[in-house]
Amino acid sequence: EWNRQEHHMKIIGAALLGVLTISPVRAEDKPAFDAAKIQGTGMIVSGQKYGEKVGEEMIKGEVIISKDGIVIKAKDQDHVMTYKLDAKASPVAITMVGKEGPAKDLTSEGIIELKGDELKLCYAFPGEKRPTAFETKKGDKNLLFLLKRAK
User: How many CB atoms lie within 10 A of CB 116?
Assistant: First the structure.
């Protein structure tokens, strides 16, 4: 009788453990990246270049993101580029090609992340490897910007 009760308790315990175990979120369970949500107008609120904070003058200007283009309205010259996303990559990969402005005909590879009204964009200097994290370090050739959607 005792062995039978002990056996039932083990089964109940194992069942409870299975119910209480929290399974990790698998990549295929994450909501798909919605590229339409990055579209709109915003401002760059902070930036880093090669591991150092960039000055206010460099981040001033409006950023307009459309379905396939990015325009940065700077005081001296607009920067116009096209972009393509790879939403299956983690983090989401972005490849930008300059069409007008200082980066004309140059290609930069980067990563983006959207959380609410904030968009993080980290990209490598043209010809460098795509960054794998949202960071810059002294000696690398990555740039990191935080954009906030205009209200």
Answer: 8
Reported as a single tens digit per residue, the pLDDT across 43-77 is 988 999 888 888 877 777 789 999 989 998 877 78
Q: Kindly report the pTM of this predicted structure.
A: 0.75
Q: Which residues pair with 130 in a beta bridge?
A: none
Residue 36 has phi, psi (to 5 degrees) of -65, -25
At which residue do the structure tokens 């460098």 appear?
Answer: 128
Q: What is the DSSP letter of 10?
A: H
Q: Are 111 and 134 in contact (CB under 8 A)?
A: yes
Q: Please tell me the distance from the alpha carbon of residue 48 to that of residue 57, in angstroms, as a whole number.
A: 13
Provide the pairing of β-strand 142-149 with 62-65: unpaired
